[in-house]
Amino acid sequence: GLVFHDWESSKKHTTMYWLMRDKSKKLYTPNTFFAASALNRSFVHGTCRFPGDKFLPGRGGVVIEAGAYVGYKAISFAQRVGASGRVIVIEASPDNFRLLCSNIDENGLGEVAKPINCAVWNKDEKLLLMSKTRMKHTIVDTDELSFEANDTINAKSLDTIIDDFGLETVDFLNLQLNGAEIEAIEGLQRNFHRVRYINIVS
Questions:
Q1: Which residues pair with 156 in a beta bridge?
Q2: Does the predicted TM-score (pTM) go above 0.85?
Q3: CB within 8 Å of 182: residues ≥ 6 apart
Q4: Rg (CA), the chain
Q5: pLDDT digits (tens, 9 = 90+) for 44-73
């Protein structure tokens, strides 16, 4: 089986548990309901966010996932590409990154999935990471939510990341960056021709 680490349920998710407990699996508890719902959404049914199975690589493929949270989809990608493939897993939040690394290591996927703790931007620099919740982080100003600045983090361009890993081809690039997707694409210039498919989750 697989091991997954995630955060305990917030008050909101604890309330949801009690509202849905009769329809939930008995092994769920108020504290694990959030993790269970995230697991179901991103690992079990994560491919529903992609344009179709034909766009995802098979054995030996190369995936970059930018905005990986704690790694549910990254683990699914790693299983898909196998030992001969590579998954570059990028997460900006230091707290989420620690859980991401635990999930990769404890599932024995460290040779395939390579985690990076940075933001993705149009150039390499230090930026302020603003947070609303554990799943809502951004490096761009947004009118939709009120974020609080709490970390200064390294940001890298996709060109730099592709160069650092010496990637000749990226079969699938998945971007879920809470508003920084355009800047991320701006940072993919000299290596744009190496990327076969780009999927943006907004």
A1: 120
A2: no
A3: none
A4: 17
A5: 655 555 667 788 999 999 999 999 999 989
